[in-house]
Amino acid sequence: MEKTKSRKLNISFESDMEDHSREARSETNQEGDGKKEASGRRIWEFIAIASIPLVLVLGNSMLVPVLPEMQEKLGITKMQSSLVITLFSVTAGIFIPVVGYLSDQFGRKAIIIPSLIVYGGAGILAGFGAVWESYPIVIGARALQGLGAAGTAPIAMALVGDLYKGGTESQVLGLTEASNGTGKVISPILGSALALIVWYAAFFAFPFFCALSLLAVIFLIKEPERKSTEKQPLGKYLQTIGQILKKKGRWLITSFLVGSLGLFTLFGILFYLSEILENPPYNIDGVMKGLVLAIPLAGLVITSYTTGSVIKKNGLLMRWLMNIGLALATVALGLTLVFNKNQLYIFMALITLSSVGTGLLLPCLNTMITGSVDKSQRGMITSIYNSLRFLGVAAGPPLIGWLMEKSDNIVFILLSVLSGIALGLVFFLIKPEKNLAKSG
After folding, report:
1. Whole domain around residue 96: which residue ranges?
2. How many domains does the chain have?
């Protein structure tokens, strides 16, 4: 009897253990499934965020290949056609700080969503202006697009700072910079391909991409709830921004200027390449020219994403990478004076190396600037930075075009000197803490 009872107790105990084991495995599986589900949601969230800078670039750079035909169809000058790009960037640069303040007050999605609607809608208007061969409508719509653009990628950068911390933040900021670069890579190719249908097709194609980004932002991004204490009267808000700049201005303002110089150099080089590739002895045009322009941009994209993934919040590593990147750009651009455009393969390799240097620089600046302030002021600080980036983009092509009329050597002397100046500014004035996560 005792043996029977003992056997029953053992069977019961083993059964209980199996039940507990089964429950434990079930809980573990549920936890694993939960992590997988959260990881899946986060990936889609990353994609939604990356779509914002992508459509920003597509809405501008896709038009570059069609500017010569636009001049012919609308009967406008080269200067008037360049305003289609420049006015867009200048308008965005002016209004970015305003929408930055509004995003700090009312939330990031509350600004990004209507901005994408304006951006896409103005693109349709510009397309109809092109169909009607009305330059005033086209240029007016492009200015309106610039206003919409002000509330897209610059505010997305602040949103990344709100959503993520530590290494994830720097990784996503690297992803946004890579997405921006990817847009620059595919824009000339896509714009040239669309122009084979009809020259103004890019105007109508862009709103489609804009709509996809809009839906992704609405349904895939859940913004953290904002506290009522985060809202401040304009006077107090500006006072707080002034205090931040007074306390951190030495490295913060330097970062703004260096980022602007980096984009000025990049777009100046792209404009230069776009001009020389169409002329003898190369005679490269259309989609093939877009592919050649994509080479240095691909270097930027790969380096930006890799840099964002590895820097985490390591301030010492960021300092090394920024200095190495600017040194690389300075040397590469200087060597173009020796290996000039007649040696195209070496010349393109040097240009690509300078783009790799920019790819080392920008994600570090993005992470430092985004993490430098609290959420309630982040929109304005990142907006000032992006405003100067836009103005750098706007200034690059016309200034480089003017210098090209004088001498190609002057172009690369200037770009090399500017990169050297940026290197000096970073080396002496930007010295982040070893661990930015602790320094705040």
Report:
1. 49-439
2. 1
DSSP for 233-257, written as a single string: -HHHHHHHHHHHHHHHHHHHHHHHH
Q: How far, in Å, are 64, 66, 69, 192, 292 from residue 275 at the CA level?
A: 11, 13, 15, 15, 12
- Please tell me the number of Cα atoms within 13 Å of 425 on its side-chain side: 22
* pTM over the 0.85 mark: no
Contacts for 136 with CB less than 8 Å, ≥ 6 apart: 129
Establish if 4 belongs to a structural domain: no
User: Is 246 domain-assigned?
Assistant: yes
Between the two ends of the chain, the Cα-to-Cα distance in Å is: 72
CATH number at 204 reads: 1.20.1250.20
- Closest by CA to 290, choosing from 270, 269, 262, is 270
Per-residue model confidence as pLDDT tens digits over 43-75: 899 999 999 999 888 887 788 778 878 888 898
Residue 37 falls within a domain, yes or no?
Answer: no
- Cα gap 14→51, rounded to integer Å: 55
When pLDDT is cut at 50, 70 and 90, the band that residue 336 belongs to is: very high
- According to DSSP, residue 311 is labeled H
